[in-house]
Design goal:
The protein is an alpha+beta fold. Helices cover 28% and strands 35% of the residues.
C-alpha cells in the first residue's frame, strides 16, 4: 500500500512493515526511541513488538533510564530505518505503561533465557564486572528451576500513543518522498514535505 494515497497511517505502515520483514536482513522491528530528561535527549534501540491504531508497544525494565524518563515526561519520538528498502518511518507521541495483563501475556511468550535475563539484569545500573551478571543469572536459573518464570513486577511494556507518523521513501538525486500524518480532531491531517 502506498502511504501517499492513504487517509490514515496504520494500513500503509502495516504494508511497509510486511515488506521490511521479507527484505531487511537483520531485525526489521528495531526502532530507535528518544526520551528526554531535564531538556536533554537520549536515544537507544528497542524492539517494536506491537503496532496499530492503539499505538506501538515495546518492553523494558521499569527501572531503566528510558522508563524513568518516560514516567517523568511521556513525550517520545522513534524511527524505524530499513536500509534495504531506502525507507524510514518516524513517530512522535506520548508513551504510557501498558496493563499488567498485556505485559504478562507478552512475557509468557518470550524465550526462557530472555525471561531469566529480565530477572537477572538491573538495567541501566552500574555493573562492576560481567561475572557479577553471570552470577545473578545462575542464581535466577536455580530459583526458577523446573517451573515457569513469572514476569517480574519491574518489567513491562510502554505503548506509544502515536500523534504523528512520517513516511520517508528514498529516491534518486535526493528527491525523496515524505508524507506526514498528524492526529486531528477528526481522523488524520496529511502533509507532504520537501525532502
Amino acid at each position: 500500500m502506498n502511504p501517499f494515497d492513504a487517509a490514515e497511517p496504520h494500513a500503509p505502515f502495516e504494508a511497509w512493515f510486511a515488506e521490511a520483514r521479507s527484505s531487511e536482513p537483520d531485525v526489521p522491528d528495531a526502532i530507535q526511541i528518544a526520551t528526554v530528561r531535564d531538556g536533554v535527549p537520549s536515544i537507544r534501540t528497542v524492539l517494536l513488538k506491537e503496532w496499530g491504531p492503539a499505538g506501538w508497544v515495546f518492553y523494558t525494565n521499569y527501572g531503566s533510564q528510558k522508563a524513568r524518563e518516560l514516567d517523568a515526561h511521556a513525550s517520545i519520538a522513534g524511527v524505524l530505518h530499513w536500509k534495504s528498502l531506502a525507507r524510514q518511518v518516524r513517530v512522535r507521541g506520548r508513551a504510557r505503561r501498558v496493563t499488567d495483563a498485556t505485559s504478562d501475556a507478552y512475557f509468557a511468550r518470550r524465550p526462557r533465557g530472555s525471561q531469566l535475563g529480565a530477572w537477572a539484569s538491573r538495567q541501566s545500573e552500574v555493573l562492576d564486572h560481567h561475572s557479577t551478571l553471570e552470577a545473578r543469572m545462575a542464581d535466577v536459573e536455580a530459583r526458577f528451576a523446573g517451573q515457569d518464570v513469572p514476569r517480574p513486577s519491574f518489567w513491562g511494556g510502554f505503548r506509544i500513543e502515536v500523534e504523528a507518523m512520517e513516511f520517508w521513501q528514498g529516491r534518486a538525486d535526493r528527491l525523496h518522498d515524505r508524507i506526514v500524518f498528524e492526529r486531528a480532531e477528526q481522523g488524520w491531517g496529511i502533509t507532504r514535505l520537501y525532502p
